[in-house]
Design brief:
88 residues; mainly beta; six-stranded antiparallel barrel; 6 strands
Amino acid sequence: MVLAQNVTSTGGSRNLPGVVMSASPEAIWIQMDESFDSRGLSDCPVISQYTGRLIGMVVAGVNKSPTALGLHPVSSLVEKARAAFIKP
């Protein structure tokens, strides 16, 4: 199970539980436990409930029931950041 952390308009945050449906080095798709409007979740962190570690960043949402979120995996983000600092 994973938790997408959404910052609310009042400055707090709420946990949105879901389950990983597929994962690859390029993308992770999670099905959320409840349906909701996923607009505004871009760049939100997604944390493993089991390890407490960051697994990715939300980059897409499917607003059908049930809601699904597409993530950019953290390992890929780190790789791209390192590559940006390496001079050819």
